[in-house]
Amino acid sequence: MLHYDFMQRAFFAGGLIALVASVLGVYLMLRRQALMADMLSHVSLAGVAAGALLKFNPSLSGFGVALLGAVVVEYVRRSYKTYSEVSIAIIMIGGLSTAVVLMSMNSGISRSFSSYLFGSVVAVQNTEIYLVAAVACIGALFFYVLRKPLYLITFDEETARTNGVPVNLISLLFSLVTGMIVAAAMPIVGVLLVSSLIVLPAALAIRLAPGFTAALWLAMLIGLTGVFSGLTASYEFSTPPGGTIALTLLLFLVAGIGVKKLVIKWRKQHSKLRRKVGASGQNKLLEHAGISQEPPVIH
């Protein structure tokens, strides 16, 4: 499998994007912005359609439009502070409707769109490799350098403002990095399923990890394993990589939650059993010592 150049490119790009996308997913879920990835993927679809219509590289045009959408959603979100999810719905509607109109202008575009909708290992060319590598480096640098202010903003934005953290600037940069990661992941998992690569590893990691830092590392491990397993299954069964990776990560999520529930149930039963055994052992010890457990009778 790995002796094919296109599979080598897919594994390299998929591994890089899985690492930064999983970290991004943890922040998005804790900030209650899990749908932002889905929104930006639909916005980038308009850029892909525009690029195909103008005979420009669709991946690069989708990347540019995703960045534009990230900036717009951040400013719209500030206009709807109480209902921040409204901004996501507004931008998603605008991006998807624009994509539909642009695709209708050229029937040939619609037929060549399946690789962008569902992902394709063949679609990962040198341009996508360079794009993914650049995004992975920028994303890793962003999350490492700004890890402390990001942590404060994620859990308590008002406290972060009080401590002098430039919340608006960092939130804008966070939206831009989100747009970059979403656009870079498109050729591998597709527009329709790009959010699965961001949300599912984070969803499982948050349920299993004992703390925030552990959740970040566990999410990266889950994302990397899911992408490699999904790409392998996609090659073996000739299925779309996007759907295969998403199903693999979904199976990981269901299995992980199920195993955790079984472990919690076993611990409860084991704890009850230990208490019973402890009480029984104590009674036998007292009986052996000739100490009665019956309350004294007062005549």
From TrEMBL:
CDD domains, per the entry: TM_ABC_iron-siderophores_like
PANTHER family (UniProt xref): ABC-TRANSPORTER METAL-BINDING PROTEIN, METAL TRANSPORT SYSTEM MEMBRANE PROTEIN TM_0125-RELATED
Top-level taxon of the source organism: Bacteria
UniProt KW Membrane keyword: yes
Stored Pfam families: ABC-3 (PF00950)
Subcellular location: Cell membrane; Membrane
GO biological process: response to zinc ion; transmembrane transport
Annotated SUPFAM superfamilies: ABC transporter involved in vitamin B12 uptake, BtuC
Protein name, per record: Zinc transport system permease protein
Key words of the record: Membrane, Transmembrane, Transmembrane helix, Transport
Listed GO CC annotations: ATP-binding cassette (ABC) transporter complex
UniProt family annotation: Belongs to the ABC-3 integral membrane protein family.
Membrane spanning stretches: 6-28, 60-76, 88-109, 129-146, 216-237, 243-264
Membrane association type: Multi-pass membrane protein
